[in-house]
Amino acid sequence: MSDPLWDALARVQDPELRRPITDLGMVESARVDDDGVAHVSVLLTIAGCPLRGTIEADVAEAARTVDGVHSAEVSLDVMTPQQRQELKDSLKQRTVPFMEPNSLTRVIGIASGKGGVGKSSLTANLACSMAAQGLRVGIIDADVHGFSVPGLMGITQAPTRVDEMILPPVAYGVKVISIGMFVESNQPVVWRGPMLHRALEQFLTDVHFGDLDVLLLDLPPGTGDIAISVSQLLPGSELLVVTTPQSAAAEVAERAGAIATTTGQSVVGVVENMSWLELPDGTRMEPFGSGGGELLTQRLSTRLETDVPLLGSIPLEPRLRAGGDAGQPLVLAEESSAAAQEITRIARQLTHRPRGLAGLNLGVNPT
Question: Which residues does ATP bind (predicted)?
């Protein structure tokens, strides 16, 4: 016979691991006394857990939903080294989980030929739009030298470390990791190729993202070390190429997409950003020209010998910039705006395919 209090606690998720605290072994004891007071003892992964207040409040709220419970007393303690090791063993192994043959996570690198085309803003807004659709989404800010995703997502919290395992902060339902979370006072990251590769590899092996539907990588512009490392560490990943309407920008962006001919990746599509600016009288001004997105799709389709579609054209809106500065993605803060609606439409095109089982080894043998 099930215990109503434990059933209620099973609905409480650890805010970082995104799994029920009962499954994670975090509930040490739970009982209701004769006076209708629920007593729950919760074990935190580390003593300095930054979200201990959230866990305490969620547990108390869940306990009070049980019939006959009038109040809840929650005590917090810390896991022993053995309990923490058991938790780590149950969560992951030191491998790249997205490379496993049975992984259903779709990995998409957001690429561009040069900086300043809005690649990072697009990554953050696409992720939030996908999460709002009910998908489990993660972001790796792989632009190590030009990291900006934490600020765009309004993240000031540092990742939680459980020994060598890293739990990424969560914002708007999206799990995010960035080198910017490990440097102080906006210090520059001065690394060469091997260190960049090692950083990306550590993000993929040591960070516990859990089971994701989509993992987005905000790639640095161009075709440098990180682009090569992504193809090596995530050979099944796809590329989404971002450009502005300017023909010169499209020519540079072509190189970022054409790297797929060498790496074996596929280009899922092109997004044209800053396509036009709508003036107060309703007319459109095209400060960066027009046609760059279409030109890029034609060139990539020819070069890759496959259809590369133009997934959308996003207008230039001051509110998109303002939302990024405030850490409030436009697709959530101003979802009725033209730019937000176009980004949402692009996100739906990218995620319209459900995670399938075709070609996977299910471990079932006919008898």
Answer: 113-120
